[in-house]
Each structure stands twice: as C-alpha cells, then as structure tokens.
Automatic annotation (TrEMBL):
Signal sequence residues: 1-19
Pfam families: DUF3576 (PF12100)
Name of the protein this chain belongs to: DUF3576 domain-containing protein
Classification via InterPro entries: DUF3576
C-alpha cells in the first residue's frame, strides 16, 4: 500500500476509536421545544429571487441623470445603472481641450439639489483640479434645471 492510502486508513481507524469513547449510550433531550417550521429562510440562491420590498426604493433624479449624459457627452459611457444612479464614463477629450478626462457620476437622491450629485473627475495623471470638477458640477446642475423647466412648460 502507498503512503497516502495508509494515512487515510489510519485516520479512519482513529476516528472510529474516538467515536467509541463516548460514555453516553442514548442521550435524551428533555428540554426540547417545538416551534413553527421554518419556511421563510434565505439561502445562497435567494440572491436570484425577485423580491419586491415596498419599503426599499432606489430613486434618482432624472433631470440630473439626463443632464450628466448631455454635459459629458464627449465621454464614452462605460457603465450605467439607473437603479443605483451610477454613471461611469471612460476617457475622452472635451471639444477644444487637450486633456483627456474620465468621470464617475453618482446621482444619490431624487431631489434636484447639489447634494444629490456626486462627481469624480480624473485625468490620466490623477484627479482633476477641484475648480474643473466644480465647473462640471455647475454645468450638470444648470442643465438639469433647464430640463426641468422645459419639462414643466414654463
């Protein structure tokens, strides 16, 4: 017999010896409680279920969403998730500019408000200048307000 087979046989033999060392012949649990059967239980497969919880809503402001797509239209859209409000753009150069930028926009709230918008702007050399980020945020919010006014027919 090989070394691996001998090792397995020895391990199984030791497990059998240890199992026989118990001094209880038939343990009885007299404090057993009965309860309702567990029917509503989560498993690993629960993530694939479509469970609509009316208490959980993910809403984004559509005007900020559309304005972000318009203002940053020179950037290619890499990923868009309207349920979480996340827009990821790849590198692109603005018209008349020489620096390539990439952006990530997170629309966090359904309100048309500055705190609903989170913008991360970067160049190939690192984060963009704070002044540039502020100007792009202002452009997105201004365009969002214009879209809302146009939608209301004012």
């Amino acid at each position: 017999m090989g070394w691996a087979v001998k090792s397995i046989v020895a391990t199984l033999g030791m497990a059998a010896v240890l199992a026989g060392c118990s001094n209880e012949t038939n343990p009885q649990n007299t404090n057993m409680r009965t309860g309702e059967p567990i029917t509503d239980r989560e498993t690993i497969f629960s993530i694939f279920g479509n469970y609509d919880d009316p208490n959980v809503t993910l809403e984004v402001n559509r005007y900020i969403w559309d304005a972000s797509l318009e203002v940053l239209s020179f950037l290619p859209v890499t990923s868009a998730d309207p349920f979480s409000g996340l827009l990821v753009f790849g590198y692109g150069t603005p018209p008349g500019g020489g620096t390539a930028y990439r952006a990530t926009v997170h629309v966090k709230d359904p309100a048309l408000d500055a705190r609903s918008l989170n913008l991360a702007l970067a160049t190939r050399a690192g984060p963009a200048a704070p002044d540039t980020v502020r100007k792009v945020e202002d452009a997105i919010l201004t365009r969002a307000r214009q879209l809302r006014i146009a939608d209301q027919g004012m």
